[in-house]
Amino acid sequence: MFNNSQENGRAGQRCKVNKHLIIAGHIIGASLYQFRSQLLAWYEARARELPWRKNRDPYRVWLSEIMLQQTRVAAVVEHYHEFQRRFPDVKKLSAAREASVLAAWSGLGYYRRARMLHAAARIVAQKHGGKFPRTAQELRMLPGIGRYTAAAIASIAFGEPVAVVDGNVERVIQRITGNPLRGEKLWTEANGWLDRQRPGDFNQAMMELGAVVCTPRAPACLTCPVVHLCATRGELATGKKAAPRKKREAHYALNYRTNGRGCEVFLKRRSIQSSLMAGMWELPEIDDLSQVRSGGNAEPCLTVRHSITVTDYTVRVWRTSAPRSKGKWIPVEGLNNMALTGLARKILRKAGVIP
Ligand code: SF4
């Protein structure tokens, strides 16, 4: 681990070492000061402008951290503003109906996160008077907040000196040390590297470096602010293999009509006991394609691609009523406020049913 006897500014006058020193996978001594100051200077100059970085309001930080779990930054940016508009603070979120929260979450996937977010908002509003706990330890008592998320909120919003370890930080540490550290050793290492004067910025800088420079494939070492301190300067063989992706095909029925009440679309609600996307609305799935084909439908009306965890789906949509499907006619103008699955929203958009 970095030697913390040389903390930050106090070590400035000793910072004459211009080559890195790595012993048993750990950068030590003055290199620690260099690493922190160069990483932070790079972050200040180059950090992406992201909506949740505008201030350190714990509600905004918390919301972004939950949304970013297993979701691309671009997708989160798309949903973040709208979610904020509907639920601008923790009290508004706690008072909302679950269906409204799920509707605003629609398209981000992993809906359990939205339910946990809602449950945590209620606890913050009811037990903490609308104020977030300030330490990582207390934050971990809230639903949906694990070790990483608690450390991210506590350091960014409240300046608590706790390090985060996510996939990006793990990769950066492993490459810089040249050591495939894992588990508790990795957390210990990250805590040793942390800038205790600016823990929130430092944590974000580490994650930013991993996200935009020290990427999983083909890291941009030539533009890396800490290249001279890095033992690997490229990909490190960690022995980790990406999970193989599966391919599947699925078929859904798209059925809409226009009557005196305007345009309506036929949807069905997923079981409330379902382990995935419980209680959300989707198009009826077609189990037996032969019935659709025998009804005169030779070709699907559209095809979309959709990925869930490690499975890539090719989804064929048929303009038909789904045989024996239980469901409900839903007015199109009400769809925006419904908890639609991401796939249903994608299909309805592509079909031009919703904007
Ligand atoms: S030099 Fe390359 S491998 Fe090392 S931290 Fe920078 S981007 Fe990552």
Features:
Nucleoside Triphosphate Pyrophosphohydrolase, 2 domains, disordered N terminus, binds iron/sulfur cluster
- Topology order in helix (H) and strand (E) letters: EEHHHHHHHHHHHEEEEHEEEH
Low-confidence stretches: 1-21
What is the CATH class of the largest domain? Mainly Alpha
Bound molecules: iron/sulfur cluster
How many strand elements? 9
Q: How many discrete structural domains?
A: 2
Q: Brief overview, please?
A:
The chain is built from 13 helices and nine strands.
Overview of the molecule:
With 355 residues, this protein is an alpha+beta fold. The protein has 13 helices and nine strands. It has helices at 30-46, 58-68, 73-86, 90-95, 98-105, 112-127, 136-139, 147-158, 167-177, 183-193, 199-212, 289-294, 342-350, and strands spanning 22-23, 26-27, 246-254, 256-259, 262-269, 281-282, 302-308, 311-319, 328-331. The strands form three sheets. Strands 4, 5, 6 and 9 form a four-stranded antiparallel beta sheet that branches. A three-stranded mixed beta sheet has the order 3-8-7, with helices on one face. The protein has a two-stranded antiparallel sheet with strand order 1-2. Helix 1 packs across helix 11 and helix 8 (147-158) crosses helix 11. The termini are far apart. The relative contact order is 0.11. Iron/sulfur cluster (SF4) is lined by residues 172, 175-176, 213-214, 219-221, 224, 226-227, 230, 232-234.
List the helices and strands and how they pair.
Layout: E1 22-23, E2 26-27, H1 30-46, H2 58-68, H3 73-86, H4 90-95, H5 98-105, H6 112-127, H7 136-139, H8 147-158, H9 167-177, H10 183-193, H11 199-212, E3 246-254, E4 256-259, E5 262-269, E6 281-282, H12 289-294, E7 302-308, E8 311-319, E9 328-331, H13 342-350
Parallel strand pairs: 3-8
Antiparallel strand pairs: 1-2, 4-5, 5-6, 5-9, 7-8
This protein binds iron/sulfur cluster.
